[in-house]
Specification:
The chain is of the alpha+beta class. It has 13 helices and 15 strands.
Length: 393
């Protein structure tokens, strides 16, 4: 099974990302962006543009277009893996999809309304297009299932959300677990040590951003919580804020839906400087734009606070790992995130990229007890790996 093709499907709130993998080889892949926004774009894995069929207007039709493309190229998957954002307290590992799993994913939609329904749509369309091909759900929350109770509990009454359909248990779940897990495995290979022997701080920094403290190969704390709103400042999400503020916003006449929209889609970097694209913000900051400069400083400051907190939680760290679009590529922002942390054993040096592994070592090996690494997020490969492990059991 290891060399047979696995199709990875990742349905976002406004996108469909896919990759057909056979072992380490990517046979086909791409992303359809702008679903529901009226500005559709289909980009192949090679960066080339693919014409978007006129019929594409929602996730279902986008998925059908992707599967049609695969059929035209005579690509047939032996298995299909789906990223599912929220697995609640139910799913601690990847699972083979059946009717019961579908129903449970649907029941968790209230915890991730912008993602779980689309993740389920991917499963449904794939089942129709590839009858009989096994499907596996891989959950972003699963990596954080072993958070200790003192890290996952909120200081709220246990019945705080009673009566709210689909609200779930008021606890911290954590997200980006697929990316944090991939970073752990790649770091273990780079350090030539087993994952269970490592203490790490991993930083997934992109339009969504989160940090994780990993002890002995397991997540023991993470910055996102009950929803992906908690934690670091993000592209359009506010991150941590005083819980009284949403109440004040509602008291001022906004509905709960309007407040949620404000915190999820109109806050973060977008609220600070009018853009959620860190590449554009960096260019503006370099040109002297004070709002853009503040946005980058605030973003890096929150990341630095998370690093300090997790160093305290762990007591030590073998490595600090940057991943995600920003974490892997924005060297200047990485320096801002760790500036002044030399006393904690984090000392940057000359960047040393390794073409074979795709990992760049950033620390001074003579003076930094903590390795500092940057790597691209490898969620598709991690999902494919989990699919094969699940089906082999």
């Amino acid at each position: 099974m290891a060399e047979r093709p696995v199709l990875v499907v990742n349905c976002g709130s406004s996108s469909v990302r896919y990759q057909l993998r056979a072992g380490d080889a990517v046979r086909c892949g791409g992303t359809i962006d702008g679903i529901g926004a009226g500005a559709l774009r289909w980009q192949g894995a090679d960066g080339g543009e693919i014409p978007v069929p006129a019929a594409v207007g929602d996730h279902r039709s986008a998925l059908e277009a992707v599967f049609d493309q695969l059929a035209e190229r005579e690509h047939t998957p032996a298995a299909i893996g789906h990223r599912v954002v929220h697995g609640g307290a139910e799913f601690a590992t990847a699972v083979r999809v059946d009717a019961d799993v579908r129903a449970r994913i649907a029941g968790l939609a209230g915890l991730a309304p912008s993602h779980n329904p689309h993740n389920l749509r991917g499963i449904e369309v794939a089942a129709a297009c590839y009858p009989g091909v096994p499907q596996v759900a891989v959950f972003d929350t699963a990596f954080h299932q072993r958070l200790p109770e003192h890290a996952r509990r909120y200081a709220l009454p246990a019945d705080a959300l009673a009566g709210l359909e689909g609200a779930g248990v008021p606890r911290r779940y954590g997200f980006h677990g697929i990316s944090h897990g991939a970073a752990l495995r790649h770091t273990a290979a780079w350090l030539r040590r087993p994952p269970e022997a490592l203490d790490l701080i991993t930083l997934h920094l992109g339009n969504g951003a989160s940090a994780a403290a990993i002890r002995g190969g397991h997540s023991i704390d993470t910055s996102m919580g009950f929803t992906p709103l908690e934690g670091l400042v993000m592209g359009t999400r506010c991150g941590d804020l005083d819980p009284a503020l949403p109440l004040l916003l509602q008291a001022g006449g906004r509905t709960p839906e309007q407040v949620r929209d404000l915190l999820e889609t109109r806050s973060g970097l977008l609220a600070l400087c009018g853009s959620s694209d860190m590449r554009a913000i960096r260019a503006r900051a370099a040109a002297g734009d004070s709002d853009a400069r503040l946005a980058r400083e605030l973003f890096a400051y929150r990341v630095k606070k998370a690093i300090g907190a997790y160093l305290a939680v762990l007591g030590r760290a073998d490595a600090l790992v940057f991943t995600g679009g920003i974490g892997a590529h924005d060297a200047e922002l990485r320096r801002q995130c760790v500036a002044g942390l030399e006393g904690f054993g984090i000392v940057l040096g000359e960047a040393r990229p390794d073409a074979e592994t795709g990992i760049t070592a950033l620390h001074d090996p003579r003076r930094s007890p903590v390795a500092v690494l940057a790597m691209a997020a490898d969620e598709e490969a991690e999902i494919a790996r989990q699919v094969l492990v699940c089906l082999a059991q």
